[in-house]
Structures are given as C-alpha cells and as structure tokens.
Amino acid sequence: MDIGALSMAISQINVRTEVNVSIMKKTINQAETNGQSVVKMLGQFVQPHIGGKLDIRG
User: Fold this and answer.
1) What DSSP assignment string belongs to the chain?
2) How far apart are CA 35 and CA 58, in angstroms?
3) Residues 6+ apart with CB under 8 A from 9
4) Is the alpha carbon torsion for 12, 14, 17, 19 positive or negative?
5) What does each C-alpha distance from 26 to 7, 8, 34 come to in angstroms?
6) Could you read off the pLDDT of 2-52 as tens digits, one per residue?
7) Would you give the end-to-end CA distance of the chain in angstroms?
C-alpha cells in the first residue's frame, strides 16, 4: 500500500470515528434529558402522606 492510499484510509477512519463520537454525544444528551424529564414527572406525583401507615385487622 502506498503512502497516499494509507493516508486516505486513515482519514476515512478518523471521519468515521468523529461521526460516531458525535452521534454518541447526542444520544447521551438525549438520555440525560429524558432522565431529567422522568425525575421531574415522578416528583409531581409524590404524596408523602400516603403509604406511611399500614392498618391490619384480623
């Protein structure tokens, strides 16, 4: 393999790596956003006065 072909192959690998990293960053950001939304949504439904006591009659 000559130097020109090797250089192009390395360049293509670098571009693919950059694309993969960019996609992974977007995926991580989206997952963080979704997680924050779930935490916020669950926080709205918390009712601390419910479930604190259990009455059992036999």
Assistant:
1) --HHHHHHHHHHHHHHHHHHHHHHHHHHHHHHHHHHHHHHHHHHT--TTSSS------
2) 43
3) 1
4) negative
5) 29, 27, 12
6) 999 999 999 999 999 999 999 999 999 999 999 999 999 888 877 777 767
7) 85
Tokens describing residue 23: 């996609």
In this predicted structure, what is the pLDDT of residue 17? 97
CA-based max dimension of the chain? 87
d(CA 16, CA 8) in angstroms, rounded, equals: 12
